[in-house]
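Hi R.,

As promised on Friday, here is the backbone we talked about, encoded as structure tokens. Could you run it through your design pipeline when you get a chance and send me back a sequence?
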């Protein structure tokens, strides 16, 4: 319950809704996906897989998250794409995120948060890290 309250408090202070960033992988643990969606949206692995036309995915192991993204559970962030280890991670954005004016996310820790213009993420950051996101609607 306290995590929900914390999320509500963060949203109120930043005057926006934080994103939810999930680190996923295929069954063989050879393909990895960083999925960014609305913080209050329930994740459905089947809908995600169908939208990408790929076999079903699951959450990547905490060890993989640490090794590839340099973060721990609860701290996944789009900024991990700056790391060389994350160069093969496929970024997947929910269309609803792309439609928002602001992008609020973790700074890679479980205690720090950022509020940025979504346009800056899409038009400046992603080209800088050489990422072409797949945008889906689920």
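Update: got your reply. Pasting your designed sequence below so it's all in one thread:
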């Amino acid at each position: 319950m306290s995590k929900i309250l914390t999320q509500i408090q963060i949203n109120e202070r930043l005057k926006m809704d934080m994103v939810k960033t999930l680190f996923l992988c295929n069954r063989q643990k050879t393909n990895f996906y960083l999925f960014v969606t609305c913080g209050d949206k329930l994740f459905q692995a089947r809908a995600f897989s169908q939208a990408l036309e790929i076999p079903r995915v699951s959450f990547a192991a905490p060890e993989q998250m640490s090794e590839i993204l340099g973060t721990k559970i609860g701290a996944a962030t789009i900024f991990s794409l700056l790391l060389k280890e994350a160069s093969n991670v496929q970024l997947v954005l929910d269309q609803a995120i792309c439609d928002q004016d602001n992008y609020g996310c973790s700074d890679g820790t479980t205690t720090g948060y950022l509020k940025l213009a979504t346009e800056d993420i899409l038009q400046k950051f992603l080209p800088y890290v050489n990422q072409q996101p797949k945008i889906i609607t689920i």
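One thing I noticed while checking it: The radius of gyration is 14 Å.

Thanks again,
M.
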